[in-house]
Amino acid sequence: MQRGRLGFRTGRSSELGPAAAKPAIRPTASATTTRSAHRIGKEPQPRPGSRRVVHRGHGPRGELVAERGGEDDEWVRAPAGRLGRAWAWAAVWAGLVASRVSRRMGLGAGSIIGGRVTLLLDPGALSGLAVGRRVVLVSGTNGKTTTSHLLAAALRTSGRVAHNVTGSNMADGAVAALAAAGDAEYAVLEVDEWHLAAVARAVQPAVVVLLNLTRDQLDRGSEVRAVAAAVGAALAGLPRTLVVANVDDPMVVWAAGNAARVCWVAAGAGWLGDTATCPRCGALLRIPGSGWSCRCGLARPEPDWWLDGDLLYTGQQVTRLALRLPGRYNVGNAAQAVAAAAAVGVPPERAAAAMGELATVAGRFAVIGHGRQELRMLLAKNPAGWAETLPVIAPERPVLIVINAREADGRDTSWLWDVPFEKLTCPVIVASGERAADLGVRLSYAGLDHHTESDPVAALTLLPPGTVDVVANYTAFHQLSRRLGPHVGSP
Amino acid sequence: MTGASTIRIGLLLPDVLGTYSDAGNAAVLAARARWRGIPAEILTIHADGTPPTGCDVYLIGGGEDTAQLVAADWLRRHRDLHHALDSSAQVLAVCAGLQILGHTMRDRAGQDHPGLGVLDLTTAPGRRRAVGEITTTCAIPGVGQLTGFENHQGISTLGTGTAPLGTVGTGTGNGTRDHTEGVLADRVIGTYLHGPVLARNPALADHLLTAITGTTLATLELPDQAALRRAYLDPHATRRRLHLRRSIPKHLSRQRLTGTPPAVPVRRPPGWLSTG
């Protein structure tokens, strides 16, 4: 059975070899298993005394997309007939053309438009493209992009990896990433929490990594508990998936409670502002010393992997995580990435070594030269992200803070008031971005003298030469990266 | 409450009712008092502590649905505090806070939960969630227009004789047919505006401080305040803000940085800020 250039794995019985006639009771992991499962609508004939279960995967409209013959079998895409296959191939090809055109015209990296065109033409494209690959989904409020980059670096030591590098984390981004990486056997996809259910159902991942669930874009989600419930419902429908979850976040533990298989990682708690009350029963959580618990029974589980400084422990094994990325939170992200990599067969030392090579992630933590200034780019888009970023900002360095409030940032800037800006000790602070005025008022009430200039590139002229820390939220970060250097972290 | 005595600001349950960052209202009140030479302290009241009953103003913020019921239970159990809210202190209640102070709150399952009965209103869920910018004309003389961000699904029906805080310009507000927003009682202000509401509307903050201190206050204007009000209240500015800018202005793309004094005049805040 061949894997086509566009990544589909399809086959007819004549291509499967001489063993195709007789289905085995315990199929091996070779490419010629699942002989009879490719016949649509026909149950494979069971041998007397044998037990056989056929697993079927369905697309978003209920159409049969793929099947596999048994527990250890691989998925085979159910061929929809010659016309259906041709149409699916054409849809992916059209998406790739659209993204190339978009890149040529300078409208961006083209990942979103390519994925959208493909999904428009073939709604089952995501399932089809994911069949036969080992897919890892990374989700959570903060750290998705960083963790997915760390994980992709680790999995690249084992084979080719499809990865939505640009951070387009909805279904169209996933389709574009899978289409662009032809026959890659691994796929690492960062997925927005609200889209996890749809993407996971289509893709049937091997592993889902849940990092944290805190408030972000409340105009979109309205309640953190609602996001956690949606994620929990998504995980309940994935019996074969391993969930790598952070034990120190009660929302994540509650959501992962529905999963059939969980690997618990003590990645550390960042910001606990959303977890004063138990997500299950609403009572106040008790947070003594090292654990948290509620009288309803929801409590911090025993971790399978835990951190002590830079050392990651599991069972008898110890791995050192020596990262070039700054911040305590990135050690936690790396711990979850190592656990996920181990679940798909990459040994922890090899994974940790590969992760240690990364110095920047999609433009974050990059240092860009701009005239006589060196700008260190940092991304922080909600209170939890800022809680992790504040310790990283150098205390005596000037800082430029850029805040937008577009759709992708969350239209309400109230979250700025949950950021303890009072802790900033920088000598020069400049407030910038489309919501520079909101930020300026917040900084004034924090007792900080600052300048206000809504255009961030003009704002740089208000800062002295030398190293400057630039902290921006989502769209502001991408806009500024594009303007400072098109090669740096542009989506 | 006269001149130099410390204003005590009671911030109620910010860990439970703090999802929409309404704890910022306390910081605004305290700062605006201190900058005028009136000492102020913020008392953060957590669920496991004994709430002080002698605060001059209590602030209750917005939160998630389950948290709202936990907070209402807690408030009902602390009768002294309930009495203080009812009789002696100024109160600013936002969103869930407003709903808790009413007579009853109905959840999405249709079950009624009792409130504190401090305000004459009842709340029931609406069909759609009201999310977005809201502007209102405030009924308090001298305050003018209010701007905020609303994010709620509750419709609050005021009892007869209860005055609203204002009438809605753009947005939803209380959700009733008369297009009113919030509630204005003798010492209690209830509103659905986040932002936080006092950060976006300094005149309302000063009204509260005047009610607490009983004195007229010196004018206070932050450097970015006027730009903020213009951005939210001027309809043309709103349209400009929503318009996606696609090109870099030419004079900036060719700008060369020489390291000499900047060509753009440096804006500095007024001197009194550094003594605050």
Number of helices of chain A: 15
Taken from the alpha-carbon principal axes, the silhouette of chain A is globular
Mean pLDDT of chain B: 84
| Largest beta-sheet details of chain A | 9 strands, mixed
Strand content of chain A: 15-25%
Mean pLDDT of chain A: 81
Main sheet: strand order of chain A: 5-6-4-7-8-9-10-11-12
Radius of gyration of chain B, in Å, reads 21 Å
Query: Structural class per helix/strand content of chain A?
Result: alpha/beta
Straight-line distance between termini of chain B:
22 Å
What does this molecule look like?
The complex is a heterodimer of chains A (491) and B (276). With 491 residues, chain A is α/β, with parallel strands linked by helices. Chain A has helices at 82-104, 111-121, 125-130, 144-155, 171-180, 196-203, 218-221, 224-236, 250-256, 328-343, 348-355, 383-389, 436-445, 456-459, 474-484, and strands at 55-58, 64-68, 76-77, 134-139, 161-163, 186-190, 207-210, 242-246, 261-266, 305-308, 311-314, 317-320, 367-370, 373-379, 399-402, 429-432, 451-452, 466-472. In chain A, the strands form three sheets. A nine-stranded mixed beta sheet of chain A has the order 5-6-4-7-8-9-10-11-12, with helices on both faces. In chain A, strands 13-14-18-15-16-17 form a six-stranded mixed beta sheet. Chain A has a three-stranded antiparallel beta sheet with strand order 1-2-3, with no helix packed on it. In chain A, helix 4 (144-155) packs across helix 11, helix 6 (196-203) packs parallel to helix 8 and helix 8 (224-236) runs parallel beside helix 9. Mean pLDDT of chain A is 81; it is low at 1-5, 7-44 and 487-491. Chain B has a six-stranded mixed beta sheet with strand order 2-1-3-4-12-11. In chain B, helix 1 (24-34) crosses helix 6. Chain B starts with 6 loop residues before the first strand and ends in a 23-residue tail after the last helix. Chains A and B meet through helix 13 and strand 17 of A and helix 1, helix 2, strand 7 and helix 7 of B.
